[in-house]
Every structure is written in structure tokens, then in C-alpha cells.
Amino acid sequence: MGPRRTIGRLTRTEEFRRVYRDGVRRASALVVVHSSPNGLTLVRLGVSVSRRFGSAVQRNRLRRRLREAVRWHRPRMQRGVDLVVVPRAAAADAAYAELRDGVSAALGASGVLTGNDTP
């Protein structure tokens, strides 16, 4: 069995700021993805959902759905990248499949995905 490819988390404000400052920004209709090389062997993810998306329950649900949409692409992701995913207003009412497609489009545009096969 090969090495398990996991997705770590960005937790510190400085990490988010570095990705915003030094990274590449690509967007789809539902999400904006900021990506930046991290010099590590893993992908780290941060999701930033503002209060305009509703109560804490609604924001956390959207955060979980976005995190899972990124994890779905894990087999095709290059290593050593920090990602920050920021939802757009339409993401709040989108079905999971639409979120996953929006994340796929933004990740593909940012050059994070490798290969063309669907996981």
C-alpha cells in the first residue's frame, strides 16, 4: 500500500495571509480558489466562509461541503500546495454536485489538478 495522500488544514492567520498575498487566484461561478506552493509534501486547505452566509450552522455546513468537494479531487492534486477556498454567494444554495464542479473548475484553472481522469 502506497503513502496515504491526506489534506492538511491551514489554521493560522499568517498562513491564510501568505496564500492570499503570494498565491494565484482563480474563480468559478461558485468559489474562488487561492493557491500557493508550500514547500511541503502535502496539500493544506483552508476554507473562509464569511458571516453573510448566515448562522454558524449554515456557515459550518457550507464549510464541510466545500472541504469534501476539495477532498474528492485529492487523487488528482499535485503535492506541496496550500489552498484557500472562498465561496461566492451562489454557493449557499448550490447542490453538492454543483459545488464539486465549481471547485473542479477553479482548481483546474489554478493548475493544481494533474491529469484529466475523473477520480
Description:
The chain is an alpha/beta fold and 119 residues long. The chain has one domain (7-110): Ribosomal Protein S5, domain 2 (2-Layer Sandwich), CATH 3.30.230.10. It has 3 helices and 5 strands, in the order E-H-E-E-E-H-E-H. It has a 5-stranded mixed beta sheet, with helices on both faces. Helix 2 packs across helix 3 (96-110). The chain is globular, with a radius of gyration of 14 Å. The model has no long low-confidence stretch (mean pLDDT 91).
Proportion of residues in extended strands: 15-25%
By CATH reckoning, the class would read Alpha Beta
Derived structural class: alpha/beta
Q: How many individual helices? A: 3
Average pLDDT value? 91
Regions with pLDDT < 50 over 5+ consecutive residues? none
Number of strands: 5
Quaternary state of this entry equals: single chain
Named CATH topology: Ribosomal Protein S5, domain 2
Task: Give a summary of the structure in a few sentences.
The chain has 119 residues and is of the alpha/beta class.
Task: Outline the fold blueprint.
Elements: E1 7-9, H1 13-22, E2 24-27, E3 31-37, E4 43-47, H2 56-71, E5 81-87, H3 96-110
Parallel strand pairs: 1-4, 4-5
Antiparallel strand pairs: 2-3, 3-5
Q: What are the key terms here?
A:
3 helices; Ribosomal Protein S5, domain 2; 5-stranded mixed β-sheet; 119 residues; alpha/beta
